[in-house]
Amino acid sequence: MMDDSASKPHLRAGRLAARDAIPVAERIEKSLQLADHGLATIPVSPGGIVSGFLPIRSEMDLRPLMAGLRQRGARICVPVILDKERIVFRELVPGAPLVDCGFGTSAPGPDAAELEPDIMLVPVAAFDATGQRIGYGGGYYDRAIARFREKGLQPRLIGIAFDCQEVASVPAEPHDVRLPAVLTESGLRHLD
Length: 192
Hints:
By secondary structure, the chain is α/β, with parallel strands linked by helices. The longest helix has 18 residues, at 24-41. The protein has 4 helices and 11 strands. The two termini are 17 Å apart. Helix 2 runs parallel beside helix 3 (63-71).
């Protein structure tokens, strides 16, 4: 764990560099470990909606976990950036074509159903033991979660990261949404 209470950009850069340094074969193994832990600890009901994400750069690869949750009856969706302020979650179904969505991401096209997740698997650049997280700096997830809550929805939030992305403390801002749990290659942790 990095012992640093520096600024968000500094923490983000340091933890992303640590993530980038994980060799590809080890990253694949850790993604499979995360999938095993997630399938053992994330309950889904048939028709329940889970948002994941397709990996970019050196992110944890959630495809094995999403495939396992789909086999249990979950509907899977992934984020799509619509503009500088908003993301929506479109259903990811096997065999459906993916389109380039910018920032190195791909997702189902505009014909795919837009879903409101019951469980959100949230990408994390850095996190701390209290559940504060740093994303990539765009605020997309914070705004999407706020939108869901304004509608009276309370999706279960689970951060997704490698163990090496934990830091001693993340500076919190008023708009930041705290994560009650994080899933890493070591398992699911409920955060204070």
